[in-house]
Design brief:
Blueprint (H helix, E strand, L loop, with lengths): L2 H4 L14 H12 L2 H9 L5 H29 L3 H4 L1 H4 L5 H34 L10 H21 L1 H29 L2 H5 L11 H16 L2 H5 L5 H34 L9 H7 L3 H30 L5 H16 L1 H5 L2 H30 L24 H17 L3 H7 L2 H28 L1
Length: 459
Amino acid sequence: MDKSKKYAVDSISKDHRHMTYWDMFATWVGANANNGTWFVGGIIAACGFVGGIKALIIASSISYVFLALVGYMGYKTGATTMAISRASFGIRGSIIPSLVNLTQFIGWTAVNTFIAATSMSYILHTLFGWPVFGHPGGNLGLIVGIVVMSVLHLISIIAGQRSIQIIERIGIVLVIIFVIWESVVVFKDVSFSQIAHWKVPSAQHMKFGSAIDTLAAFNLAWVTAGADFTRFTNKSKTSTTAPFLGAFVGVFWFAFIGLSATISIAITSGVYNANNSDPSTIANRLGLGMVAMIVIVLTSMTANAVNIQAAGSALNNMFSKLSLKKSLFIVTILSTIVTFIPVIYGSFLDTFTAFLDYVGMVLGPIVSIMVVDFYMIAKKNYQVSELGNPQGRYWYRGGVQWLSFGLWIFGVILYWLLQKVAFIQNVTGATFIDMIIVGVLYYCVKVFTNQKEDVKIAD
């Protein structure tokens, strides 16, 4: 087989890009205005209201600057994020970011599917009297919910890219209605002042740096999907400001509601329990009824439309013989299987927390290397035709740029070590410090080696 075909890259030409500013904005609002964001808001309630809001603004702002930067890379090249990663990791070496992207987006799909399936168990309880998940016999409703959600995902894949845009547009309207509805219910029972002055039980208090890392892992997960969507835009502004604003509005909006609702329940019940901060449990405790559960299911679809697309693109980059549609089918099936892990493990919160630790540890160094390489080394000028050329400039040694691979390993280890430092835990978090160090090292080594190569050529 011709190697150039084996590593071929699908780049969208500008005359075939029709995604508008509103479509891009709605895509990223819908991606973040979902159950996982709500749940994260409930988790950072352990920082208290003020601490949670500060961490949310800081971590989200920094993370989505990277989303905008990667978004421009998609606009400039017309390629997916994982195809673009070939320039900094090598054509074969891009399997590392692709594998990370594949696993993390399968994980996010599973997270949203699990929460939606929990809502389905409440719906089945209302319709047929089945036990709710968390009660004896409740696993049946959850399992049926997982299967139903997976079927809905497969239907959206079959319908194609246009269906995803329709899902996003409908979903954003439902999200707006639902958030307003829940906000009214929350602040009807508990005042904003009570929520703002609520004190976290000392045994459950989360350190500020840990909250930064939790939110950074959550937000950076979207960064490696950025170009997958901005490559369908024909304006640079649409590829940068729309993802930043959409993602920030979505994450702040829903995390704020999750944070406020969790604290309000802690105030009224006298008990704070992060296990009860998933949307289905909160909606049930607030008495929002079956309509709320249906909306939770639909908003899961809007988020997973992005998750599945990103995971499918990663798999397609790893195995170019697979069509994108086949890749999407495979990742949907894999996500369904992964969704059962919390059922087996016994705790959704513990599984979710472990997943966030994994994402934060492996993702930051990849994003840092890609951004530094494109903007500071390549000066925003990648040769797209070379991304699939096994004899070209991005082949490096054996298809791998070993510098990137080595710094990625270093970054993973450094993250793990930084998290053990008290100051890091209490104040800054490890994620962004890790990214800065890896980025600076990559830039310095690349500049030094390029200068040596220039000297050799001159001699």
